Amino acid sequence: MKNKFAGILINWYEEYKRELPWREISDPYLIWISEIILQQTRVVQGYEYYLRFIEHFPNIQALADAEEDEVMKYWQGLGYYSRARNLHAAAQSMNGIFPKTYSEILALKGVGEYTAAAICSFAYNMPYAVVDGNVYRVLSRYWNIDVPIDSSGGKKLFATLANELLDNERPAIYNQAIMDFGALQCTSLSPNCLFCPLADTCLALSTGTVLQRPVKQHITKTTNRYFNYMYVRAGACTFINKRTTDDIWKNLFEFPLLETAYPLAEEEFYALPEFQSLFVVGEKPLLRSV
Predict the structure, then answer these.
(1) Can you tell me the distance from the alpha carbon of 34 to that of 179, in angstroms, rounded to the nearest whole number?
(2) Is residue 71 within 8 Å of 57, Cβ to Cβ?
(3) Residue 147 and residue 153: Cα distance in Å, rounded?
(4) Burial bucket for residue 266 (CB in 10 Å: 0-12, 13-18, 19+)
(5) Once rounded to an integer, what is the mean pLDDT over residues 154-158?
(6) 284 DSSP assignment
């Protein structure tokens, strides 16, 4: 079963794989950059940003020697800027040499188990299975697994299964194959089951539960935050601040900000003691609430 499953995926991959700039290379630095970008960014969005970033920072030392503001500039548009700060800090810790073991790679700032496995597999062809959203979806459907993927038991189960199925002779190509299969064939909302090479043995398809897999137990909680930005000018100058707290957008620049617990009308905002302490109230400044 293991060899058949892997073989089918690899054969499919050879015909339908996505042509991506970080494929067909073994440079761990470039693979690391691509994996960090793809942590929170879709492939189609990250493609051009990756090319721009590695053109300016072609190797570890170039990234390590750069100023943080310069790194942020070339990360601009990707969001989740802590990724860029972690890349910069990790590059500075390497002394120009990318680590070669799973434990050393996992110890890099901003690198988790998935990213460490991906780098080991794609750069060094080491037998580490990658388990991302695409892999969860393919495995949960093929074996019709109803254990929540975000539970501790589910994570352990899928990690074990993924490693059992791994083609140890071709780990890199197998990992790329199962991820592309999930991204292109066994998609979240519109899986192409009619022309799926695994259809004959897919348990979720045979039981009509394809769209119910994978199962999740937790719903992400959201918190509303109310940012009141102030556009403040003095002659030809406009005031901006650099965020320095360990919060979102750390070390990025913004207009002066007062955060409130709930939305305020303009007059309510002007009456805030925090606002009063910042300005001598004369003409009302231009205010935009987000």
Answers:
(1) 15
(2) yes
(3) 8
(4) exposed
(5) 97
(6) P
Question: Which residues, in sequence order, are bridge partners of residue 229?
Answer: 257, 288
> What's the CATH number for 1-17+130-221?
1.10.1670.10
Which residues neighbour 135 within 8 Å (Cβ) at sequence distance 6 or greater?
129, 158, 162, 178, 179, 182
Q: What is the mean pLDDT of residues 20-28?
A: 93
Q: In the chain, list all ranges with CATH 1.10.1670.10.
A: 1-17+130-221
Instruction: Please give the Cα distance from 147 to 217 (Å, whole number).
Output: 9
Query: Do 126 and 96 meet the contact criterion of CB atoms below 8 Å apart?
Result: no
The topology (CATH level 3) of 27-124 is Endonuclease III; domain 1 (1.10.340)
114-126 residue pLDDT tens: 999 999 999 999 9
Give catalytic status of residue 35 as yes or no: yes
Residue 281: the pLDDT is 54
Helix or strand (DSSP H, E) at 4:
helix 2-16
Spatial CA neighbour of 126 closest among 54, 31, 42? 31
How far is Cα 235 from Cα 185, in angstroms, rounded to an integer? Answer: 58
Q: Which of 14, 15, 35, 283 is catalytic?
A: 35
Say how far apart CA 187 and CA 211 lie, in whole Å. 10
What is the spatial distance between Cα 177 and Cα 242, in angstroms, rounded to a whole number?
Answer: 43
User: How far, in Å, CA of 158 to CA of 146, rounded?
Assistant: 11
Average pLDDT of 151-176?
96
In the chain, CATH 1.10.340.30 covers: 27-124
User: pLDDT of 256-278, one tens digit each?
Assistant: 898 998 898 888 888 888 888 87
Is the model's pLDDT at 208 over the cut of 80? yes
pTM of the full structure: 0.80
d(CA 121, CA 79): 27
Token pair of 193 as six digits: 């089951």
**Residue 260 backbone dihedrals phi, psi, to 5 degrees:** -125, 165
